[in-house]
Design a protein that fits this description.
By secondary structure, this protein is of the alpha/beta class. Helices cover 40% and strands 20% of the residues.
């Protein structure tokens, strides 16, 4: 059997799973679109961004891979991205605070259960705070690799086994997981830990219009 045929079948399987979780997310109050490719997701996101004057970025690699900054800036949007190079700690903190009241906040998630529950773990809590309350609109870009079976416990396992260690390594943190690739459950004993705030969204936050873009590609961590 040709590899292209195998890939087509696997793509069909993941698309079927994404459609199923989309229904669960809608029942939990989220607006949801299933996108076949990242290019399709990018086009939808740019359309959603049209009314916004300010756009906040939550530090997501999934969002970063869409290369939106220049196009949004050329459209006259104020870009609030604390990940820009050469920012002082004070400047980063001020941008994080302003993201809490931006017109549009863009992020991804650490894990999404097949029941439609969104699970994140943060170091500072700025990302989960912004996706919960404050911005006029939130868009969550979620690749198929973030989908887990087994409920919230499986989501937390994914974060401990994949997202946590790799993000700590990416950010240059001096944590046990950044050295070994394995979560050491270092809560309270590691000053540079990025696992301090756990957020579990069982429904759309009441005052925050939130669109979830599910993408049938692997995106981010």
């Amino acid at each position: 059997m040709e590899q292209s045929t195998v890939n087509d079948m696997l793509s069909w399987l993941s698309a079927t799973r994404l459609e199923a979780v989309a229904q669960k997310l809608r029942a939990r109050g989220f607006m949801v679109e299933v996108c076949a490719t990242r290019e399709e997701a990018r086009a939808k996101l740019l359309t959603l961004a049209e009314p916004a004057r300010s756009v906040g970025f939550g530090g997501s690699l999934s969002v970063a891979c869409l290369n939106l900054t220049r196009e949004l800036r050329d459209a006259g949007k104020e870009i609030l991205n604390h990940g820009f190079p050469n920012l002082s700690p004070e400047e980063k903190l001020e941008i994080m605070r302003r993201q809490l009241t931006c017109d549009l906040f863009l992020s991804s998630v650490n894990a999404l259960t097949e029941d439609g529950i969104i699970v994140n773990i943060d170091g500072n809590g700025n990302r989960v705070a912004a996706m919960t309350f404050g911005p006029r609109q939130v868009v969550l870009l979620i690749g198929r690799n973030k989908l887990v079976r087994g409920g919230v416990h499986a989501a937390l396992d994914r974060i401990a086994e994949v997202a946590g260690p790799v993000n700590a390594y990416r950010l240059g943190r001096k944590t046990p997981c950044a050295a070994t690739g394995t979560c050491a459950q270092c809560a309270g004993s590691c000053p540079e830990s990025i696992c301090r705030v756990t957020s579990i969204l069982k429904q759309r936050p009441g005052c925050t219009p939130t669109t979830v873009l599910l993408v049938n590609e692997d995106l981010g961590l």
